Amino acid sequence: MTTWEESRMSAITRRSLVIAGGTVLAAPALAQNADWPSKEIRLIVSVAPGGGADLVARQVARVIAQDTGGTVVVRNIVGGSGLTGMAEMASSPPDGYTLSLVNIGSLLVLPHIMQVPFSWDDLAFLGGISQNYYGVAVAANSPWQTFGDMIATGKTRRITYACATIMNGVALVQAGNQSGARFRLVNTQTDAEAITQTVGGFVDIAMTSSTVLLPMLQSQRLKLLAVTPARWPNMPDIPTVKEAGYNGETVVPLGFACPAGVPAPIRARFEAAILKAARDPATVEMLTRTINMPKPMTGAEFRHALFSQAPTIEAMLAEAGMKRR
C-alpha cells in the first residue's frame, strides 16, 4: 500500500446528510439516461462539517434534490489537505451519481509538491457559487499606511507575508511583478498562525480571508492596507489592490466538479442546479452574512477562473522552494 493510500485509509472521516427532494418524481427524459436519478447522488466535500464551504455544498445539494426529484447525500471526506475527497470523486464511476466541491489546492498546489492520482482532464467542471474576500493586513503599529507605502518598502527589501494557503498571496506576487517590489512567502499551518506571526512582528503581512481577519481588525490589532478581489461590504472604504494602482488580484472561487466521463445531459442538469443555487436568495443571504462574495459561474467560467492562475501558483511554489524537482 502506498503512503497516499495509507493516509487515505486513516484520514477519511465521514458524515452524511441525506437530503430528500420531497416526493420522488420521475426525472425528465435524458437522451442517454432516461431513468436518472435512480439512486442517491453523492456530493463529496473535502472539509469538515459546519464550515462555510460545507454550508454552501449543502445548499447546492438541496437544489439538486429539488430539481431532480432525487436524493442527495452530502459526504464529508477529510484528509490529505483536501486530496482524499477529490481523489474519491475523480475515481468514481462516471455515471452521474458522484460530484464534489472542488478543493483548489488539489489542482493548483499539490501536483507540484507530490504525486496526485488525477489530473485536470479527469474532471468536468460544473459551475461556481462564490469567491472569498481577502485582505492585505499588517500589525496595527506598522509604519505603512497605504498599499503604496508597502510597495515602496518592497523595492528596498524583501517583504514577508504569511498565509496557510499559497493562493492567498497571488495579488501580492502580481503587484510585485509589476512594481519591482519583492515578497517572500512564509507558509503557515493555519490562518490563525499567519495572524499571530503578523501581530507579533515576525512577518510583515497576513494575507488571508475576510472572515479570518475580521476579529483582529475589529480589536485594532491589525489594519488593512488593501483588499481583493473587490471591496468588502462591511469595510467599504478600503481600496482594492487594483484601485491602489497595481494589477493584482487573488481569486479563489468555490465550485463543483464531477468525473469527466459523466454524460453531457446529466452534467447540464448539475450545472443548471448549481447556477440556480448560486442565485437563490437563501444562498445569497448566507454568503453575504458570512462575508463571502456571491459569484455564479458556469462550468467553463469556473474552470477558467482556476486554470488561469496555474502559471502564477507554480512560479510562487518554485520561489518558495516548495516545488518538487
Question: Please, could you describe this protein's structure?
Answer:
The chain is an alpha/beta fold. The protein folds into two domains: 192 residues, D-Maltodextrin-Binding Protein, domain 2; 95 residues, Periplasmic binding protein-like II (D-Maltodextrin-Binding Protein, domain 2), CATH 3.40.190.10. It is 37% helix and 22% strand. The strands form two sheets. The protein has a seven-stranded mixed sheet with strand order 1-3-2-4-11-5-12, sandwiched between helices. Strands 8-7-9-6-10 form a five-stranded mixed sheet, sandwiched between helices. The longest helix has 17 residues. The radius of gyration is 21 Å and the shape is globular.
Task: State the main characteristics.
Bug_dom1; 325 residues; disordered N terminus; five-stranded mixed beta sheet; 12 helices; seven-stranded mixed beta sheet; D-Maltodextrin-Binding Protein, domain 2; BUG; 37% helix
